[in-house]
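@channel anyone free to eyeball this complex?
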Amino acid sequence: MASSIHDLARHLNISIGTVSRALNGRADVNADTRQRVLAAAKQLNYSPNQSGRSLRQGATRSIAFMLQPHPGDQQYGEPFFIPFLTGLQARLAEYDLDLMVVMGEPGQYQQERLRRVVETRRADAVVLANTRRKDDRIDYLSKAGFPFATLGRSQSGDDTYPSLDIDFERAGDEAVDRLVARGHRRIAAIRPSHDLNFGYLFLDGYRKALKRHGIEVDPGLIADGFINEAGGYQVTPRVMLSKDRPTAIIFNNDAMALGGCKALAEMGIRPGHDIAVIVIVDTPLCRYFSPALTAFRPSLEPMGRRLAEMLLASLPAFAGPEGTRIIREVWPLELIARDSD
Amino acid sequence: MASSIHDLARHLNISIGTVSRALNGRADVNADTRQRVLAAAKQLNYSPNQSGRSLRQGATRSIAFMLQPHPGDQQYGEPFFIPFLTGLQARLAEYDLDLMVVMGEPGQYQQERLRRVVETRRADAVVLANTRRKDDRIDYLSKAGFPFATLGRSQSGDDTYPSLDIDFERAGDEAVDRLVARGHRRIAAIRPSHDLNFGYLFLDGYRKALKRHGIEVDPGLIADGFINEAGGYQVTPRVMLSKDRPTAIIFNNDAMALGGCKALAEMGIRPGHDIAVIVIVDTPLCRYFSPALTAFRPSLEPMGRRLAEMLLASLPAFAGPEGTRIIREVWPLELIARDSD
DNA sequence: CGTTTTCCCGTAAACGTTTACGAGAACACA
DNA sequence: TGTGTTCTCGTAAACGTTTACGGGAAAACG
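replying in thread with the prediction:
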């Protein structure tokens, strides 16, 4: 159906080698024949077959994006990823690279999906999201020598892969700073369990800031829960029932914050009045919630574009003349002050 | 690096043809040799190279999902698509099919992205979202004879492709029903412009229900706007300034509803008290907004799975013995009664 | 024992590219 | 004229599969 390079060659009465060279802009082809080839390609509506190309070049020109849903994820999933994905896809498209999305149930099955992509050579590289502190996907890819980059840091692997992360540590720090400046001393921290790396980073910043202000860290004010609304709902009362009640809570996740606010409401405690609430990663939900939640917001779409660039810079096939570079970046968040603190 | 079918053949001292047949479960291979091949495949960690396979079979085993952002889309995009994508991906994965996501800026560029996928044979079929009333993507794919399915109906094409849509007409109808039953007679309808097909369907249902209740359709109570918050904010005052003020508004989009509520708030009109508000497609934002918005909710993840099935049933390579069938379905929405009406 | 059928396997072509190699022609230069 | 260089192109192999075809051996059947 579609015309091949053979059709072009036959039509022009030249060899397929010359046609290919002409199309690929190689130097050793006469300027005149190149024009004729290009014209014929347009006329016959020729496009190179990607499968043939992939086979010969050993590269598929597609990048896999793998996102691992948290256990017990909500119906609507993470709105977080759409803008990131948009940015990622946009930049990749500029390099004529396709984006393949690999999801999967949480758990072991996930690893299998990744192996399939790698072993059958369905993609040239992988972008990992939702990095865990100890992440076997990273271990696997490192060991396999397969190119990848991560959204989020991890303690797995050996720092030889590009990674882009949000500065959760600083956000935790700044959140405490802001609350202390407003007179709070009893500040709770609620973060996800599941070994998610950002939960640890957040807590580091939280602790550091408390120490700087000479406030002792009270383990009773720190709690882990499932990273969803139910988790926040379940775990928030625990810190509120601490002997010396907190006057502020920092939530390390928007869904947990919403669940937490529900629990607070049931206790008759109003965020923004009776207690200050700050959430570390802003989503549209924070804005429309009542009261609107003060939150730290990342620039997800630029981050998607940036991670694409970083990944490409690490691939020999795409790296410029300066060679392949491994880049690791941590981006700041912007505080969006609203009504909850 | 990765072992090929040749490695297996050499290792077992048999021909590659036999190896391939053994792996693909063909009948004309001895049971014993098949076992040896399978064992060797496991031992050498063999996986078939997808590029080689694609080239030979003329099929890439991947499906492209194309979503076209509306002009002026929000930072966080459509949370709508995540669960749909999840379902779509899940079902495709069961058939060992990959999902490729093709986004793109609104406008002409979009068409070009689609052509690229089709002409370079990067995918075996396409799933279209955000169908317009007149949709040149559908026209193009139909003409090109390329397999596709759509989320949402359209007036383009000739009904020879699978499509799955939400029953916007019925939702519009039921929304009016509900409001009339609660005593409303002046009911406004706010929907998106951009030729989006569902806006028309919604309005059909709205009109039909009004007629059934003997209420005259007042053009002053119907308005179009950009399908985002700003659009709702801008257009809502227009219907409110109608000589005979509406007592209820049905919004055909969640973002427009949020913008509309902002406009209402500035006019001192409180949804749920001074005016009834219903939104046609529910998102998490509706739930957390204050007041929580009554809304019609689709089951997006099942829809994703279903559309995958429908698409596959239309592909000769996947259709069962009963041949390829074109299926078109319209799914109902579930009313989630909250506090805004 | 001869013939036919069945079983199993090897051979080789094909899918559509890219590219290393070499060769012919033209040209330059001495 | 002889030698070397440059320009341009054709040839053919290679990427990793799948599969049509045919053939030899074994089994079945008379």
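from a first look: Residues 14-18, 21, 28-30, 33, 52, 54-58 of chain B lie near DNA strand C (CB under 10 Å from a C1').
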